[in-house]
Design a protein that fits this description.
single chain, Mur-like_cat_sf, metal ion binding, acid-amino acid ligase activity, Protein-Tyrosine Phosphatase, Chain A, alpha/beta, ATP-binding, 17 strands, nine-stranded mixed sheet, about 425 residues, globular, six-stranded mixed sheet, peptidoglycan synthesis
Length: about 425
């Protein structure tokens, strides 16, 4: 390791400790400073690690945390960006905790943004790349999903020795031949039939499904040709119980439980299980790690707000939004709904995706009050009224602090909060400033 990189590490660590001491948390700044000092820091350090990259539209942060927790059961030296800082500076920041030990296997488990992947993949030279899924996300940033998949394909071609662990239930992942060894994971049990048609990415015809989960995923096949789901290397064979609090299911021949709800999180657990099995980690360690995993902030995060039980969920695209709405639909008690929408670049400037959210599914719920806020609160309010909610129960707010103050007097114990990415961060900052979290 060069003197420049050694100095960059030292400076990054000092910066991180100062930030932790005086602001109570880190940021991307340590990595940014380290990169300024040593632009090759990622390449210099990552060569000492088995690097596992997690990328895709939804589920990157939780999957990264699940994998990290599992690997900690067997290995001691792990660096990870489990807080979700997935751009170049965040990845550099993860390596700041690098220790010069040579007597044990070291792992770097890294969430990488789809748009950042090609910038870092050769420097990281990963052993594995996990493709979680691809859905329409920030159309103004990436265009359609095929353009996003091109980013993933180009990155994979740059590191042909990397093994790809791909979601086999997603047809798009089976459309391009790659030089890499590929393994597939998926759900091999029926959940419900598709509610809309999904088209074959090869011929444009309508796909048929032997089993189906959500948003075009499942055991698909095209009647017009030979296009079908690949053979799965790792699979969920049974979904035993889905509750508001947790999910219980079988992977291959063993039963597992995760303390988060939603079918989409079973896919995240399956991705983590798949790479763990590649390293021969035993089921007991995997079970324990999955069960011990804490909820990621903004992902089914439980917060006590002035004695009320609030659940905070970040939403970034129609698929993620509809999965969150499905969870809210399962709540049986009266609730207050808080809906926050920004249109900053990190949220996606184009918020037209909100129209594809199935807010109509909540009309039968006992929602006593709705509070809307954020830069695009008017768009959110209009969509809720369009869905059929009584305008008289909707109150618009110009600032998030006022929403938090009014939640003191919420008429329900249960509060459900959905927020776009930057709105979620701003809302949590208000909660932190008020010492609620």
């Amino acid at each position: 390791m060069s003197i420049r990189t050694t100095f960059a590490l030292l400076t990054g660590r000092i910066t991180k400790r100062l930030l932790t001491t005086f602001t109570g948390g880190g940021s991307s700044l340590p990595g940014k400073i380290a990169l300024k000092i040593s632009p090759n820091i990622i390449k210099d350090i990552s060569q000492h690690y088995d690097v596992i990259i997690i990328t895709g539209t939804n589920g990157k942060t939780l999957t990264t945390r699940l994998i990290t927790n599992i690997f900690k059961k067997k290995y001691n030296t792990i660096v990870s960006n489990i807080q979700g800082s997935n751009m170049v500076q965040g990845i550099a920041g993860a390596f700041i905790e690098h220790k010069n030990r040579t007597d044990e296997k070291k792992f770097a488990i890294l969430e990488v943004d789809e748009g950042t992947l090609n910038k870092v993949v050769e420097d990281l030279n990963p052993k594995y790349i996990i493709h979680t899924n691809l859905f329409l996300d920030q159309a103004d940033r990436y265009g359609d999903v095929t353009k996003t998949y091109e980013l993933l394909v180009n990155a994979a071609k740059k590191v042909p020795d990397a093994i790809l662990l791909q979601n086999g239930d997603l047809p798009l992942f089976n459309t391009v031949e790659l030089p890499n060894e590929r393994k597939f994971f998926g759900v091999d049990t029926p959940v419900h039939p598709p509610k809309s048609q999904h088209h074959c990415p090869k011929c444009g015809g309508t796909l048929s499904y032997k089993t189906y989960t959500y948003s075009g995923q499942g055991n698909y096949y095209c009647k017009s040709g030979n296009f079908k789901r690949p053979i799965l290397d790792y699979k969920v064979t049974d979904i035993i119980k889905l509750s508001e609090e947790s999910s219980t299911f079988r992977m291959d021949d063993a039963t597992f439980k995760i303390p988060v709800a939603g079918l989409y999180n079973i896919y995240n657990a399956l991705a983590a299980y798949s790479v763990a099995k590649e390293y021969d980690i035993n089921n007991e360690d995997i079970k324990a790690a999955l069960l011990e995993t804490e909820r990621v902030f903004g992902r089914q995060e439980r917060i006590n707000i002035y004695g009320h039980t609030a659940t905070l969920n970040v939403v970034k695209n129609p698929v993620g939004l509809n999965q969150v709405l499905t969870l809210i639909e399962a709540v049986e008690e009266p609730m207050t709904l808080v809906a926050l929408l920004n249109n900053r670049p990190a949220d996606g400037v184009d918020v037209s995706w909100l129209r594809d959210g199935n807010f109509e599914s909540l009309l039968s719920q006992n929602i006593t009050t709705i509070k809307t806020g954020g830069i695009s609160k008017e768009v959110m309010t209009e969509r809720l009224v369009e869905a059929g909610f009584n305008p008289h129960i909707i109150k618009k707010y110009d600032n998030l602090e006022k929403i938090v103050e009014d939640l003191k007097h919420a008429s329900t114990d249960n509060i459900q909060i959905i927020a776009s990415y930057t709105a979620m961060l701003e809302f949590r900052k208000v909660l932190k400033d008020k010492k609620i979290i």
